[in-house]
Amino acid sequence: MALTISIVSLLISMLTFWLTRIRKGNLKMTRPSLICFLGQNGNDEPKVFMRTLLYGTADQGQYIQNMFIRLHQADTIQNFNIWAYGDNGVVRGSGLFISKSGISLYHHFLLPKNGQWSFLPGDYKLEVFAETVNASAKKIFEQNLTLATEQANDIKQGKAVYFDWAPDTEKYVSYSDDRKYESKLSRSV
Fold first, then answer.
1. Which of 53, 54, 104, 179 has the smallest CB count inside 10 Å?
2. d(Cα 107, Cα 91) in Å, to the nearest integer?
3. Handedness of CA 17, 19, 21, 23 (dihedral sign)
4. Average pLDDT, whole number, for the chain?
5. Which domains does the chain have, with CATH numbers?
6. What is the pTM of this model?
7. 109 confidence band (pLDDT: 50, 70, 90)
8. Quick one: 30 exposed, middle or buried, by C-beta within 10 A (0-12, 13-18, 19+)?
Protein backbone atom coordinates (compact mmCIF):
# COMPACT_ATOMS: atom_id res chain seq x y z
CA MET A 1 0.00 0.00 0.00
CA ALA A 2 2.79 2.45 0.90
CA LEU A 3 4.58 1.70 -2.37
CA THR A 4 1.40 2.41 -4.39
CA ILE A 5 0.87 5.74 -2.62
CA SER A 6 4.51 6.68 -3.22
CA ILE A 7 4.28 5.86 -6.95
CA VAL A 8 1.01 7.83 -7.35
CA SER A 9 2.54 10.76 -5.48
CA LEU A 10 5.63 10.66 -7.71
CA LEU A 11 3.47 10.58 -10.86
CA ILE A 12 1.40 13.55 -9.63
CA SER A 13 4.60 15.48 -8.84
CA MET A 14 6.03 14.72 -12.28
CA LEU A 15 2.79 15.80 -13.97
CA THR A 16 2.71 19.03 -11.94
CA PHE A 17 6.34 19.75 -12.83
CA TRP A 18 5.63 19.17 -16.52
CA LEU A 19 2.49 21.37 -16.48
CA THR A 20 4.15 24.27 -14.65
CA ARG A 21 7.80 24.22 -15.76
CA ILE A 22 8.18 22.41 -19.08
CA ARG A 23 4.96 22.69 -21.09
CA LYS A 24 4.94 25.81 -23.28
CA GLY A 25 1.19 25.87 -23.87
CA ASN A 26 -0.37 27.92 -26.63
CA LEU A 27 -0.41 31.60 -27.47
CA LYS A 28 -3.96 32.97 -27.53
CA MET A 29 -5.64 36.26 -28.35
CA THR A 30 -8.93 37.65 -27.11
CA ARG A 31 -11.40 39.19 -29.53
CA PRO A 32 -10.16 42.75 -30.18
CA SER A 33 -12.32 45.40 -28.56
CA LEU A 34 -11.34 47.71 -31.43
CA ILE A 35 -10.18 47.19 -35.01
CA CYS A 36 -9.40 50.15 -37.25
CA PHE A 37 -8.67 50.60 -40.97
CA LEU A 38 -6.98 53.83 -42.01
CA GLY A 39 -4.60 55.44 -44.45
CA GLN A 40 -4.41 56.23 -48.15
CA ASN A 41 -4.52 59.99 -47.68
CA GLY A 42 -1.51 62.11 -48.56
CA ASN A 43 1.55 60.58 -46.88
CA ASP A 44 -0.46 58.17 -44.77
CA GLU A 45 0.07 54.55 -45.66
CA PRO A 46 -2.73 52.01 -45.34
CA LYS A 47 -2.63 50.37 -41.93
CA VAL A 48 -4.69 48.36 -39.52
CA PHE A 49 -4.55 48.61 -35.75
CA MET A 50 -6.39 46.84 -32.97
CA ARG A 51 -6.64 46.62 -29.19
CA THR A 52 -6.47 43.12 -27.78
CA LEU A 53 -5.11 40.91 -25.01
CA LEU A 54 -2.46 38.31 -25.84
CA TYR A 55 -1.98 35.53 -23.28
CA GLY A 56 -0.40 32.12 -22.86
CA THR A 57 -2.09 28.93 -21.71
CA ALA A 58 0.85 27.72 -19.61
CA ASP A 59 2.72 29.08 -16.59
CA GLN A 60 5.99 29.31 -18.52
CA GLY A 61 4.99 32.08 -20.97
CA GLN A 62 6.21 32.68 -24.51
CA TYR A 63 8.16 35.23 -26.52
CA ILE A 64 6.63 36.64 -29.68
CA GLN A 65 9.28 37.59 -32.20
CA ASN A 66 6.86 38.83 -34.84
CA MET A 67 3.22 39.28 -35.76
CA PHE A 68 1.39 40.10 -38.97
CA ILE A 69 -2.13 40.26 -40.31
CA ARG A 70 -3.56 38.98 -43.55
CA LEU A 71 -6.53 40.73 -45.13
CA HIS A 72 -8.70 38.91 -47.64
CA GLN A 73 -11.02 41.03 -49.79
CA ALA A 74 -12.78 39.47 -52.79
CA ASP A 75 -10.00 37.62 -54.65
CA THR A 76 -7.20 39.74 -53.15
CA ILE A 77 -4.97 38.83 -50.22
CA GLN A 78 -2.56 41.30 -48.60
CA ASN A 79 -0.17 40.76 -45.69
CA PHE A 80 0.48 43.72 -43.39
CA ASN A 81 3.79 42.42 -42.07
CA ILE A 82 5.30 45.41 -40.28
CA TRP A 83 4.23 45.16 -36.64
CA ALA A 84 4.46 47.73 -33.85
CA TYR A 85 2.73 47.94 -30.49
CA GLY A 86 2.26 50.15 -27.47
CA ASP A 87 -0.09 52.25 -25.40
CA ASN A 88 2.10 55.26 -24.57
CA GLY A 89 4.04 55.59 -27.77
CA VAL A 90 4.59 52.92 -30.36
CA VAL A 91 7.67 50.72 -30.78
CA ARG A 92 8.58 48.29 -33.53
CA GLY A 93 7.50 44.80 -32.51
CA SER A 94 10.06 42.16 -31.60
CA GLY A 95 10.66 40.13 -28.47
CA LEU A 96 7.37 40.71 -26.63
CA PHE A 97 6.99 38.38 -23.62
CA ILE A 98 3.50 36.95 -23.12
CA SER A 99 2.72 35.42 -19.74
CA LYS A 100 -0.27 33.45 -18.54
CA SER A 101 -1.84 36.65 -17.21
CA GLY A 102 -1.39 38.29 -20.62
CA ILE A 103 -0.72 41.78 -21.92
CA SER A 104 -3.24 44.18 -23.44
CA LEU A 105 -1.88 46.63 -26.03
CA TYR A 106 -2.61 48.41 -29.27
CA HIS A 107 -1.09 46.48 -32.19
CA HIS A 108 -0.35 48.36 -35.43
CA PHE A 109 0.21 46.65 -38.78
CA LEU A 110 1.64 48.33 -41.88
CA LEU A 111 2.31 47.24 -45.43
CA PRO A 112 5.80 46.24 -46.51
CA LYS A 113 7.88 49.13 -47.91
CA ASN A 114 6.69 48.81 -51.52
CA GLY A 115 3.26 47.36 -50.76
CA GLN A 116 0.10 48.68 -52.38
CA TRP A 117 -3.39 48.40 -50.92
CA SER A 118 -6.72 50.19 -51.19
CA PHE A 119 -9.57 49.65 -48.79
CA LEU A 120 -12.45 48.90 -51.15
CA PRO A 121 -16.07 48.39 -50.12
CA GLY A 122 -17.03 44.81 -49.37
CA ASP A 123 -16.46 41.89 -47.07
CA TYR A 124 -13.08 41.30 -45.45
CA LYS A 125 -11.56 38.42 -43.57
CA LEU A 126 -8.92 39.54 -41.09
CA GLU A 127 -6.45 36.93 -39.85
CA VAL A 128 -3.85 37.55 -37.13
CA PHE A 129 -0.65 35.49 -37.05
CA ALA A 130 2.04 35.32 -34.37
CA GLU A 131 5.51 33.82 -34.60
CA THR A 132 7.03 32.64 -31.34
CA VAL A 133 10.70 31.82 -30.79
CA ASN A 134 11.70 28.56 -32.53
CA ALA A 135 8.28 28.13 -34.15
CA SER A 136 6.66 29.18 -37.40
CA ALA A 137 3.84 31.71 -37.53
CA LYS A 138 0.44 30.41 -36.42
CA LYS A 139 -2.98 31.93 -36.87
CA ILE A 140 -4.32 33.07 -33.49
CA PHE A 141 -7.43 34.99 -34.57
CA GLU A 142 -9.84 35.38 -37.48
CA GLN A 143 -12.71 37.82 -37.97
CA ASN A 144 -15.04 38.76 -40.83
CA LEU A 145 -15.74 42.48 -41.28
CA THR A 146 -17.75 44.52 -43.79
CA LEU A 147 -16.64 47.90 -45.13
CA ALA A 148 -19.50 49.98 -46.54
CA THR A 149 -19.06 52.10 -49.67
CA GLU A 150 -19.32 55.34 -47.66
CA GLN A 151 -16.68 54.09 -45.23
CA ALA A 152 -14.27 53.15 -48.04
CA ASN A 153 -14.72 56.69 -49.40
CA ASP A 154 -14.13 58.12 -45.91
CA ILE A 155 -10.79 56.26 -45.71
CA LYS A 156 -9.77 57.85 -49.03
CA GLN A 157 -10.61 61.24 -47.47
CA GLY A 158 -8.29 60.62 -44.51
CA LYS A 159 -10.81 59.35 -41.98
CA ALA A 160 -10.46 56.14 -40.02
CA VAL A 161 -13.06 53.38 -39.96
CA TYR A 162 -13.47 51.84 -36.52
CA PHE A 163 -15.00 48.47 -35.72
CA ASP A 164 -16.04 48.43 -32.04
CA TRP A 165 -17.05 45.13 -30.48
CA ALA A 166 -20.56 45.31 -29.01
CA PRO A 167 -20.84 42.46 -26.48
CA ASP A 168 -24.61 42.90 -26.10
CA THR A 169 -25.21 42.14 -29.81
CA GLU A 170 -22.08 40.00 -30.27
CA LYS A 171 -20.97 41.79 -33.42
CA TYR A 172 -18.75 44.65 -34.52
CA VAL A 173 -20.34 48.06 -35.02
CA SER A 174 -18.50 50.16 -37.58
CA TYR A 175 -18.30 53.92 -38.01
CA SER A 176 -16.07 56.54 -39.62
CA ASP A 177 -14.33 59.23 -37.62
CA ASP A 178 -11.77 61.89 -38.43
CA ARG A 179 -10.25 62.05 -34.95
CA LYS A 180 -6.68 60.96 -34.57
CA TYR A 181 -6.06 57.69 -32.82
CA GLU A 182 -3.93 57.33 -29.69
CA SER A 183 -0.53 56.85 -31.27
CA LYS A 184 0.81 57.52 -34.74
CA LEU A 185 3.16 55.08 -36.35
CA SER A 186 5.74 56.22 -38.85
CA ARG A 187 8.31 54.38 -40.94
CA SER A 188 11.01 55.42 -38.45
CA VAL A 189 9.67 52.91 -35.91
1. 179
2. 10
3. positive
4. 86
5. 26-177 (2.60.40)
6. 0.81
7. very high
8. middle
Q: CB under 8 Å, gap of 24 or more: what pairs does 183-187 form?
A: 183/86, 183/87, 183/88, 183/89, 183/90, 183/106, 183/108, 184/90, 185/47, 185/49, 185/84, 185/90, 185/108, 185/110, 187/45
Longest dimension (CA), the chain: 79
pLDDT of 148 above 60: yes
The residue ranges of DSSP E strands in 10-168, in sequence order, are 27-29, 34-38, 47-56, 62-73, 76-80, 82-86, 91-92, 96-98, 103-110, 122-132, 138-147, 160-166
Are 84 and 189 in contact, with CB atoms under 8 Å apart?
Answer: yes
Q: CA 152 to CA 159: how far, in whole Å?
A: 9
Q: Which has more pLDDT, 134 or 67?
A: 67
